[in-house]
UniProtKB/TrEMBL annotation:
Transmembrane segments: none annotated. Gene3D superfamilies: B-lactam Antibiotic, Isopenicillin N Synthase, Chain (2.60.120.330). Belongs to the iron/ascorbate-dependent oxidoreductase family. The keyword Metal-binding applies. InterPro entries: DIOX_N, IPNS-like_FE2OG_OXY, IPNS-like_sf, Iron_ascorbate_oxido_reductase, Oxoglu/Fe-dep_dioxygenase_dom. It comes from the Eukaryota. This is Clavaminate synthase-like protein. The lineage of its organism: Eukaryota, Fungi, Dikarya, Basidiomycota, Agaricomycotina. Residues 212-327 form the Fe2OG dioxygenase domain.
Length: 363
């Protein structure tokens, strides 16, 4: 049975999600989250303190079941009372804002260079997230409707091959240490004792996640005229799924995140809920679980805008911080033995899948 320590970081929330990884899902005790998909679609809000403060195994399983249901039915959950100090999140947002306020030429010195590294600064318009795979098609989308965001990508700082691209301390005081602390606090830990729940050997995942090949992404969405975001195909970030196993998203209060209803295919708002983390399953988790768990399309669109003239409005700036959880780059992602008799996907390593997707989406 999953034996988790007291939750003091997002890492604990991620370990709980391992409960949901494959497919011997515990017996459902709740109605499906999208029982009436046209009117009852919702992302579940889960009080994680009911897990960390549970007195019995059954109490823990009840909360775990809510997480399982969320990833099965929607692909997204809100996690409340997760144990992350508010000051730590606020500090990360402040340092992120300071970074993006640096002169453009200073940021450009840290430019993202290689999909194998996935580190460095990405200027507005360079990335075009999409589900397309053809380079020509993606280039056309980028030219017609580029993503109106900039980002800073940070990986494990001890990597022997790829180094993070840090600004000089005088340019962004305290930035490096703040982000290193934020990254370390959210690493996946190697303890995985979920064999009983998953009907697998309890050490099955240990050598597949212990390398901590995760990415911390700081995101800044500059103010933009609303009319520009209403053009065909345009968005602050186009519709896409995430590439890894789990994404932990910290939002500010501006809003704009939309999640595709898996049943109606319509996009519906996922508004910020103060103090919560939005967690969604990614492509590799879906492949591992043979699509029992959903990697759901989502996008960032224009939030409510401020009127600047009789004919024009402007959207406010938006910030978010995403932590992308990835298996080891050499881990083979293939259908788990208890996730159906026929695999929907060919086996692929983490590196093969993620590097290919990154190479496709960056100019």
């Amino acid at each position: 049975m999953l034996a988790l320590k007291q939750a003091t970081s997002v890492a604990t929330a991620v370990r709980v999600s391992r409960l949901a990884l494959p497919c011997r899902i515990v017996r459902c005790t709740l109605a499906t989250l999208a029982e009436d998909p046209k009117s009852n679609f919702r992302i579940p809000l889960i009080d994680f303190s009911k897990f960390t403060e549970a007195k019995t195994v059954d109490e823990k399983r009840k909360t775990a079941q809510e997480i399982v249901d969320g990833f099965r039915e929607v692909g997204f959950i809100y996690l409340d009372k997760h144990g992350i100090p508010g000051w730590q999140v606020e500090n990360a947002f402040n340092k992120s804002a300071q970074f993006f306020s640096m002169p453009q030429e200073t940021k450009d010195k840290l430019a993202w260079e290689d999909p194998r590294s996935n580190r460095g600064y990405v200027c507005v318009g360079r990335e075009r997230v999409t589900q397309a795979h053809d380079a020509t098609e993606i280039a056309a989308l980028r030219a017609k409707a580029p993503d109106t965001k900039e980002s800073m990508e940070i990986g494990r700082d001890w990597d022997p091959t790829w180094r993070n691209m840090w600004p000089q301390e005088p340019d962004a005081r305290g930035f490096k240490q703040t982000m290193l602390d934020f990254f370390r606090a959210r690493q996946l830990r190697p303890e995985l004792e979920s064999g009983d729940m998953l009907n697998l050997d309890e050490s099955f995942f240990q050598d597949k996640i212990d390398g901590q090949w995760h990415n911390l992404r700081l995101l800044s969405y500059p103010p933009i005229r609303r009319s520009l975001l209403e053009k065909e195909g345009q968005a602050r970030a186009g519709a896409h799924s995430d590439y890894g196993t789990l994404t932990l998203l910290f939002q500010d209060s501006v809003g704009g995140l939309e999640v595709q209803n898996p049943h109606t295919k319509e996009f519906q708002a996922a508004p910020p809920i103060p103090g919560t983390i939005v967690i969604n399953a990614g492509d590799l988790l879906a492949r591992w679980s043979n699509d029992v768990l959903r990697s759901t399309l989502h996008r960032v669109v224009a939030p409510p805008a401020k009127k600047v003239s009789d004919t024009e409005t402007i959207t406010p700036a938006r910030q978010s911080i995403a932590f992308f959880c990835n298996p080891n780059f050499d881990a083979m992602i293939s259908c788990l033995p208890n996730c159906g008799k026929e695999a929907k996907y060919d086996p692929v390593t983490t590196e093969q899948y993620i590097v290919r997707r990154l190479a496709e989406t960056y100019a």
